[in-house]
Amino acid sequence: MNTRVKRLVLPLGGLAAAGLIGSTLVAPAQAAGDTATDPLAASGIAAKNVVAFWLNQKAANLVNASPYETQIVAKHISKGGPSPDSKPGTVAPTGNGGSGRSKNVNLPKTTGKVFFTGSDGRPHWCTATSLQAKYRNLVATAGHCVYDTESNKATLDRWVFIPGYYQGKAPWGIYVGKQAFTHYDFDVYEDGDRDYAFVTVYNGIKAGSGTSWFDAAEWNWQEVNKATYDKYSQYIRKSKGGKYYVVKFTDVGRLGENVGGQGLAYNQKLGKYVYVFGYPSGSHPDGNYAFSGKTLKWSYGKTFAAKAPSVKAEELVGVKSSFTGEGSSGSSWLLNYSNARRIGYLNGVTSGVADTDGNNRIDTSVSPYFDGELYGIYKAAANVWSGSIA
């Protein structure tokens, strides 16, 4: 599968309606069974320098980042699709989303944007969500939002997750990726049926007292020796009067403790309804401007089988959705979503969108089928500690 920053147009073999019921630290750049894992920011100083890239020039890279785009075009309808490879199972969520009833859909606190630099060296973003894990430190998104499918140099660079991000605001802090996990077949072969990834993140940090990253006047500084000073990026260090200073980051705690973590559901039958939460952006193929990408949106629909053999994807899941392809990659598909608690069970992540009836309007999102092999990748990631960088 080729995931490009510019519009990705891939033929989809078909969409068909069907029925839905009912540690140890992993060494970098290795594969154990189906699991492939690679480092993102391997040390605290490396993680702080990642943050420096996003803080630079009043958070210009955050504000000006463009969405990754993913579009699949359906040509005809055909039968087939995924099937369970073992017994169905779930992992319970942890909630931190509030309570109370509402006639409207209460948006989850777990969803946010992941920012990274692509193979073009420019800043981009996808959608992602916080997922329940032993150390409350796990993020789930599309595989192509973590692994570089353009230059094939393993992972994308400067990877961070900001739940609730809005125009430079980080209400619950910024979380730097530490270790990435995906299926071996996606890492090596770009198998579209395995276009998912899990990322352990360090504790969240802030650089000042507010939620904005724009104003360097808000930042706190600490004096350090010259050797320490030399390890930091120029954007989060300063010297004055023969003394050396670096930004003093504040630890805001673990991701799951701040926003909660969605549960996980795998080997589920098709046909149940899911909520899809994401940050779609841009226009439909006919030019109709649909979404800004600035605010979290939702759609709701029943899952069904889908195929995309031309991109080595034979067992995808589809759901009717008008989310456009820009920014919606990695959107969370939540089964049994509780509107009061704002939590449910992750049962898909958007890997592409499609216009299935040829009217130049996006009408379908697709995801890899969550099976037992995915659960194995999840388990490998969910038991890895990351810790603090502040």
TrEMBL record:
Keywords: Signal. The keyword NADP does not apply. Residues 77-106 are annotated as: Disordered. Residues 1-31 form the signal peptide. The keyword Transmembrane helix does not apply. This is Peptidase. It comes from Microtetraspora glauca.
